[in-house]
Amino acid sequence: MDRNSGNRTFSLSWLSRWRWNVLDLIQICNRGSIATYLYADMDMSWSEQLRASLAKIGQRVTITAIVLKAIAIAQIKHPESRSVLLPFGRTAVLEEVVGGFTAEKVVEGKPVVYFGAIKEPIKKTIAQIARELREYAERDVSEIPQLDLEHRFAKMPWLIRRIILWFGVTFPDFRLKFMDATFGISSLGKYGIRMLIPPCVTTSTFGIGSVENRPVVRGGEIVIRPIMNISLNFDHRLIDGAPAARFLNDVRLLLEGGLHEHLTPEERAAVSQTQETTELINSLENAIADKKVSVG
After folding, report:
1. Which residues contact 294 (CB under 8 A, 6 or more apart)?
2. Domains observed in the chain
3. pLDDT for 231-254, tens place per residue?
């Protein structure tokens, strides 16, 4: 509906029904959250090498899959990062780690944001996580149970939705039937976005930027490394700054090589083979360079 007020024209419309899921999560499920932010640059050299190694054995994975796996492992050590605040000052710690992420789909010709979930990411290989992420991206909403549930929920009358949401924020068992993510990930790296600050949809929500080659100092020398910025939006009602910083630092350590001990034997073998090949090439290049110097 177009309106004309003096010399200014504007259009009025109703908010899309499919937008309600996002608003419910922000305005109701996490009402009153005290959003606090941390930022860190991650050296993704090891993670990029892992991705290249897995590609050589036919496993096509993304950086998002590697990050999701690292966060899930780190979250085991930080139970406060997977806690929720209940009425009357009670808290509940969600024992099973579940990775949540945003999934953009097209419904009725318009982009709609849903919330996907990877259950038990700690027990899954990186290739399995990457496969599930691809299914969320490629398959229709009706073919994915989690998205189909959210889609049907958005169609419910306003009052029924509010009643269900009230039960969800009051009783943990009821909440887990609909929203069981212990952390959230929102990534816009594929658009070249360097940093993202997502809304606090879970107690711990991560924003993933793009991986860029940047100059950094290593061993007193300036070198080029693939760097990625990660932001952590956490609810200060449930986590203090220092524990949140330790959580984010554990994620960094895993992405920069600590994840190796959590790989499967097949994944480790692929990484080792790539490292051996790289070392052999470097040795040959150094030998050739030394020979040129001696001949000169």
Report:
1. none
2. 16-277 (3.30.559.10)
3. 999 999 999 999 999 999 999 999
